[in-house]
Specification:
The protein has helices at 15-25, 76-86, 119-124, and strands at 8-12, 29-30, 40-44, 49-54, 67-69, 89-93, 103-106, 112-115. The chain is an alpha/beta fold. A four-stranded mixed beta sheet has the order 1-4-3-2, with helices on one face. A four-stranded mixed beta sheet has the order 5-8-7-6, with helices on one face.
Length: 125
């Protein structure tokens, strides 16, 4: 028998706030027993479970692992705008004139994430 990933764990200064952001990003839900100030917060989505754990050490370097997001019901550019409105910040724009490429963002605590083209955009271009 092999191992399965139970959840992806993310260090956070404010687990509840960061979990709330990611729940909105991924159309997920926080656990019913997670509240502001808790040392952990769990987000369940259709495809993954993310666990946010309080750590006192500030983030100081680039993440060694990050999430690549593929929009399901909108374009890459529409998703980038949605995430910016939720509180993400632009880190790098790697979109090309031919429509390929991706956008790198930071979540509210500075963790990197990338937004790629949707499946429909990949087929069309």
């Amino acid at each position: 028998m092999t191992s399965l990933i139970r959840h992806i764990t993310v260090d956070a200064a404010d687990p509840h706030a960061l979990a709330t952001f990611w729940a909105q990003v991924l159309d997920g839900s926080l656990a019913a027993d997670d509240f502001p100030g808790d040392p952990e917060a769990l987000v369940t989505t259709a495809t993954a479970v993310l666990l946010f754990v309080r750590v006192e050490d500030p983030k100081t370097t680039k993440n060694r692992v990050h999430l690549d997001l593929q929009p399901q019901d909108r374009t890459r550019d529409e998703e980038v705008e949605r995430l910016l409105a939720l509180g993400a910040t632009l880190q790098g724009d790697h979109r090309r004139p031919d429509g390929t490429g991706w956008v790198t963002l930071h979540d509210p605590e500075g963790n990197e994430l990338c937004v790629e083209r949707s499946a429909a955009e990949r087929v069309g271009g």
